[in-house]
Amino acid sequence: MQKLIHELTNILDAQYILLEDQDKAPYLTDWRKRFTGKALAVVLPCNSAEVAQIVKLCSEFRVAIVPQGGNTGFCGGATPDNTGTQIILNLKRMNQIREIDTLNQTITLEAGCILQTVQEKTSEHGFLFPLSLGAEGSCMIGGNLATNAGGTNVLRYGNTRDLCLGLEVVTAQGEIWNGIKGLRKDNTGYDLRDLFIGSEGTLGIITAAVMKLYPLPISQWTTLVGCESIAATIALLNLFQKRATSLLTGFEMMTRESLELTEKHFPRLANPLKGNPPFTVLIELSDHESEEHVRQLLETILEEAFENRIISDAVIANNLSQANAFWQMREHITLAQAEEGANLKHDITIPLSTLDSFIQKTDQLMRCKFPGIRIINFGHLGDGNLHYNIAPPLGSDPKQFNENHEKEIHDLIYSQVERCKGSISAEHGIGQLKLAGLRSHKGEVAHNLMLTIKKALDPHNILNPHKVVSI
Ligand code: FAD
Ligand code: MLT
Ligand code: ZN
Question: What was the pLDDT predicted at 1?
């Protein structure tokens, strides 16, 4: 391995090859502190040519590479194994915006650009880059593409895949595939771009991308609404979809238990709705016409919802800071869970038609089997995406509880997901966390096709081995 390290110094300045334990440490543990690995080195290339040379070298030495962006992923995809033989390739130095094309409404940028910086830069040019998630201050575009991240704007603009037009990728052989094109139509054979998006660093290293931009809305209105049942939240979603159509840009659901936990750790973010109703929904409408138009529309829909007894309470944000406070309340649920201690995440999608049945049945089974358990259920209801997270009963040791019950809890919840024809990963991916469950969830044929793709593109298993699929 000394030879490999020596040859790396022919590619990168020594300061960008981290070898000391204290230098490597920040890259070795995931955001949730769920996985910790060891690495031979952490390398920090600054352009695609350097990435290609590093991959070529590692391929010759048969040394595995773990690509890493902001390290905010939830499935351990960016964490190396425990052997100390893998190299972490972090893309944070590749953070240039190459071009903002205002006529084509696209941005071409490098993989290490931080999402929030991209949002800010595009907004300075009068455009919206609609990808938005709680980790936007640290996650990177390459990581967003590699996980096909979702977030809070999916119901209007789609997930990261839907926002991407072109990619530049370093293959497992150390070649650079230049797919940097800003085309909205391109039917020239197999879609390589879509193969790399969502592949979590197992098929190639994304070094740059062309992403879609949208006009900035003139006005946005945010409201919090209380519902007594999950059926009512779905009826409300359908009402908004019918009346507001494409103006509906956010529809996030939070249960009472989720917001109790948020208030416990962040008292300034208490639910402003009286009595913290069983279900609180955060709704956002965005308009390109006028403030009055969207405000009036919002009020009319809320009136109809009150008349039809779909909602029990509503507060409309009167200014930007109130709207931000509503969003913070939603986004701090994850942070409150982290403060509370170890927890079990289930990032699932269920068709809206069976969501009510899923929640009723799963809640009932969980509470019966694990008395005192806290079901921190919230998520992007507009996409049928629940974060059905589990916190242990108050007073119990979270780590011990998870050790004793993790498998049983996952099995129970995922069997209900299968019953309802849902997915065990809506937006967070598979990584190492859900590797074992993927085969049975996908079925033999689909899983074998995935293995075939992995073997064809990465025959020496250099790129993020034992993540997503294991060959
Ligand atoms: P990393 O964590 O560094 O990597 C994730 C995976 O992508 C790994 O498998 C890694 O190997 C691979 N990878 C990274 N960069 C590249 C690259 N350039 N080329 C190839 N492979 C690469 N996710 C959502 O979808 N929706 C949410 O609403 C959401 N909210 C979150 C809120 C919080 C507070 C946190 C901490 C996370 C949240 N996430 C959410 C999860 C996470 O932010 C996303 O998965 C994000 O897309 C990961 O980006 P990253 O740059 O941190 O990637
Ligand atoms: C979010 O939507 O806030 C995150 O994806 C959810 C999580 O913490 O599970
Ligand atoms: Zn989410």
Answer: 85
- What H or E segment, with its residue span, contains residue 127? strand 127-128
How many alpha carbons fall within 13 Å on the CB side of residue 400? 5
In whole angstroms, how far apart are CA 323 and each of 60, 270, 284, 301, 458? 53, 14, 9, 19, 46
At 170, give phi and psi (nearest 5°): -90, 125
**Which residues lie closer than 8 Å to 425 by C-beta, 6 or more apart?**
75, 347, 348, 434
Instruction: Give the separation between CA 97 and CA 94, rounded to whole angstroms.
Output: 9
Give the up-direction half-sphere exposure of residue 426: CA atoms within 13 A in the CB hemisphere.
Answer: 26
Structure tokens at 235: 């009826």
Nearest alpha carbon to residue 158 among 168, 148, 147: 148
Atom 8 (ligand 2) nearest CA: 334
Q: With helix as H, strand as E and coil as C, how does 315-334 read?
A: EECCCHHHHHHHHHHHHHHH
- Count how many residues are written for the chain: 471
Write out the two tokens for 123: 């907004």
387 CB under 6 A from ligand 2? yes
**Using CA atoms, how far apart are residues 85 and 299, in angstroms rounded to an integer?**
60
Neighbouring-strand partners of residue 43: 17, 89
- What pLDDT band is residue 470 in, cutting at 50, 70 and 90? very high
Number of Cβ within 10 Å of residue 231's Cβ equals 16
pLDDT digits (tens, 9 = 90+) for 377-421: 999 999 999 999 999 999 999 999 999 999 999 999 999 999 999
- In the reported structure, the alpha carbon of residue 391 is separated from the centroid of ligand 2 by a whole-number distance in angstroms of 14
pLDDT in tens, 324-365: 999 999 999 999 999 999 999 999 999 999 999 999 999 999
- Alpha-carbon distance of 80 to 38, in angstroms, equals 6
Please give the distance of CA 451 from its chain centroid, rounded to a whole number: 24
Give 257 Cα–ligand 2 centroid separation in angstroms. 15
Element (H, E) at 180: none
Structure tokens at 40: 């031979």
